[in-house]
Recover the amino acids of this structure.
């Protein structure tokens, strides 16, 4: 097993172990209105986040191949919940021909394939709505709902991986994740175009290509606007490769709406740098720089 597969195995085990926990395993197939696979999205997101941080610890790049491995593991892990339920569930048998009355392990009464056929064919799965009416689903409805759950696990894991790839840049040259040098926060009010002006200023510095200038300007802005007020929050995460010192400055912009900070992905920014080839001390160099939008980071 390669390092690339190890995080995926953890995702699979996570699903199986959750399925083995009595009480909890009954609540792992929640969806809203049969369509929105709430449990699938949450499981996929948690499974992929754990997988990503194992990759981070092992310095394994989360590239397209690893995304395919981790999203597949999230979907299979979600399906493994049912295997955990099948392995650990018991059923009370009463007055059935050929069987003594008593409590039996499900696995002693049927195969896993039979259990899944029974589970997906069941029309007894109900949903208590706003008016506490019970809706019953037939085989098709139950199967579609189950497929939607698996789709939710896929989407949850995929989106979670894209998010983590964006905020944890990787050095392809040294095969290492970059470490945080500093994190700065700027609060401004958008009503006076203060936020737009600051973001324009940051983009101009990115175009000029000197990341030391961008970092020192952000430090100055953080000192002047570090107190929480206004409705725009800019978080600047300055990271560097521990080996070649190549830096990445990841900017995330949040807006305050109804007392809740929501990220505006379109306003985010990224600046990557290379160590200056003639610098005596590469740890302090941050000079030859390429600038790009956040979407380019996701494509790395
Ligand atoms: Zn490096």
């Amino acid at each position: 097993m390669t390092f690339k597969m190890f995080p995926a195995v953890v995702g699979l085990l996570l699903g199986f172990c959750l399925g083995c926990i009595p009480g909890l395993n009954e609540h792992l197939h929640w969806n809203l209105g049969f369509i929105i696979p709430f449990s699938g999205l949450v499981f996929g997101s948690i499974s992929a986040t754990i997988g990503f941080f194992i990759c981070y610890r092992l310095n394994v790049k989360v590239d397209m191949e690893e995304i395919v491995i981790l999203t597949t593991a999230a979907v299979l892990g979600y399906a493994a919940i049912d295997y955990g339920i099948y392995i650990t569930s018991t059923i009370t048998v009463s007055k059935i021909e050929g069987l003594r009355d008593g409590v039996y392990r499900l696995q002693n009464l049927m195969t896993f394939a039979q259990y899944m056929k029974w589970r997906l064919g069941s029309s007894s799965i109900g949903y208590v709505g706003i008016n506490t009416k019970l809706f019953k689903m037939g085989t098709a409805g139950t199967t579609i709902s189950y497929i939607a759950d698996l789709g939710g696990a896929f989407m949850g894991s995929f989106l979670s991986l894209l998010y983590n790839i964006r905020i944890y840049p990787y050095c392809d040259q040294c095969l290492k994740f970059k470490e945080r040098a500093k994190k700065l926060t700027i609060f401004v009010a958008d009503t006076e175009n203060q936020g737009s002006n600051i973001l324009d200023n940051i983009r101009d510095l990115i175009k000029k290509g000197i990341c030391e200038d961008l970092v020192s300007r952000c430090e100055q802005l953080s000192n002047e606007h570090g107190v929480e007020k206004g409705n725009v929050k800019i978080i600047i995460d300055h990271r560097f490769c521990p080996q070649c010192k190549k830096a990445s400055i990841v900017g995330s912009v949040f807006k305050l709406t109804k007392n809740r900070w929501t990220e505006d992905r379109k306003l985010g920014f990224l600046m990557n740098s290379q160590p200056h080839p003639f610098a005596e001390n590469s740890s302090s160099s941050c000079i030859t720089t390429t600038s790009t939008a956040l979407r380019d980071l996701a494509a790395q």
